[in-house]
């Protein structure tokens, strides 16, 4: 069962590994640039299907990655249970966006409609490809569609209140 305010949290990364013997962990960050994850505290880590708060005691860029010391972890054994935990922050910690901007987490779960109003599926997650982001849409029959997130050309409308995203995407492109 989800916590009542879990919808207000935005996942920014995950604990990717252990670093050293003094309780530090390696962080995989989904922020852009990755080091921006260090601007937030507390972090909420999803452990045993519950979000638990952890103060960011210290954090830094280390080589091509990020390392952090969380909560009261003082050794590798105390940090070990944090491995693979998602890292989230409260939505109100994030900067306000312009009217036509969205966080990826805003798009997850939206129903995707084609020009005829037919449901293609729901946004499961997004991929960063370099050229443009890609919506990964899962249909009711579990088929997966990759739709370019190109506002104006492909993505025509995002309506968070109605929970839908309209795309100009021909079903023939989807292999139907």
Give a structural overview:
By secondary structure, the chain is mainly β. It folds into two domains: 6-92, Elongation Factor Tu (Ef-tu), domain 3, CATH 2.40.30.60; 104-174, PRC-barrel domain (SH3 type barrels). The protein has two helices and 13 strands. It has helices at residues 76-79, 104-107; strands at 9-19, 24-29, 43-47, 50-54, 56-62, 65-70, 86-90, 111-113, 119-128, 133-138, 144-148, 155-159, 164-167. The strands form two sheets. The chain has a seven-stranded antiparallel β-sheet with strand order 4-3-7-1-2-6-5, with no helix packed on it. The longest helix has 4 residues, at 76-79. The protein is elongated and about 60 Å long. The protein starts with 8 loop residues before the first strand and ends in a 9-residue tail after the last strand. Residues 1-6 have low confidence and may be disordered.
How would you concisely characterize the structure shown here?
This protein folds into two domains: 6-92, Beta Barrel (Elongation Factor Tu (Ef-tu), domain 3); 104-174, SH3 type barrels (Roll). The chain is 5% helix and 44% strand.
Mean pLDDT: 90
Quickly count the domains.
2
Distance between the termini: 36 Å
* CATH C-level name of the largest domain: Mainly Beta
- What is the helix/strand order? EEEEEEHEHEEEEEE
Rg calculated over all Cα atoms: 19 Å
The named CATH superfamily of the largest domain: RimM
What count of helical segments does DSSP give?
A: 2
């Amino acid at each position: 069962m989800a916590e009542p305010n879990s919808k207000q949290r935005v996942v920014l990364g995950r604990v990717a590994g252990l670093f050293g013997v003094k309780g530090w962990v390696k962080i995989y960050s989904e922020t852009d640039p990755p080091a921006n994850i260090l601007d937030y505290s507390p972090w909420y880590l999803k452990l045993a299907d519950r979000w638990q708060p952890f103060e960011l005691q210290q954090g830094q860029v280390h080589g091509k990655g990020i390392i952090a010391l969380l909560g009261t972890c003082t050794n590798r054994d105390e940090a070990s249970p944090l491995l693979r935990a998602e890292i989230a922050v409260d939505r109100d910690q994030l900067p306000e966006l312009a009217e036509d901007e969205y966080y990826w987490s805003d798009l997850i779960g939206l129903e995707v409609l084609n020009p005829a109003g037919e449901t293609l599926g729901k946004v499961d997650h997004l991929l960063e490809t370099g050229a443009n982001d890609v919506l990964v849409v899962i249909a009711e029959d579990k088929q997966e569609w990759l739709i370019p997130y190109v506002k104006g050309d492909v993505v025509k409308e995002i309506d968070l209140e109605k929970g839908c995203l309209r795309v100009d995407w021909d079903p023939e492109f989807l292999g139907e």
